[in-house]
Amino acid sequence: QVQLVESGGGLVQPGGSLRLSCVASGRTGSISEMGWYRQAPGRQRELVARIMSGDTTDYNGSVRGRFTISRDDAKNTAYLHMNNLKPEDTAVYSCNALGGYYNDAGERVEYKYWGQGTQVTVSS
Known about the structure:
This protein has about 120 residues and is mostly beta strands. It has strands spanning about 1-5, 10, 20-25, 30-40, 45-50, 55-60, 65-70, 75-80, 90-100, 110-115, 120. Strands 2, 4, 5, 6, 9, 10 and 11 form a seven-stranded mixed β-sheet that branches. It has a four-stranded antiparallel β-sheet with strand order 1-3-8-7, with no helix packed on it. Strand 5 and strand 6 (about 55-60) form a beta hairpin. The N and C termini lie far apart (about 40 Å). The mean pLDDT is about 95.
């Protein structure tokens, strides 16, 4: 299993910055992708950014150029650097980890785990 713990959320004024961290523990060697998602009240959860094998990244168009996702495999941590924050960025931000491994029977087991989430509020 993989456990994910997010941190770094909080209250920030429009135009400000925050850095979110997601620390993974457990079977971290099998993680192939980590991502950040967000869910605002009354809205569906949406992808913010994800980082895949080879450090390939993918961003929601609304954050491209303002947010940067990165990953430090030595620390089993994914980061989301958020700059020029806007009120519409207010949401609960959650990280996830995707991966897979072969069990004792030689069968491929794919998984997706989620963290608890951290609140980001952008307001003056």
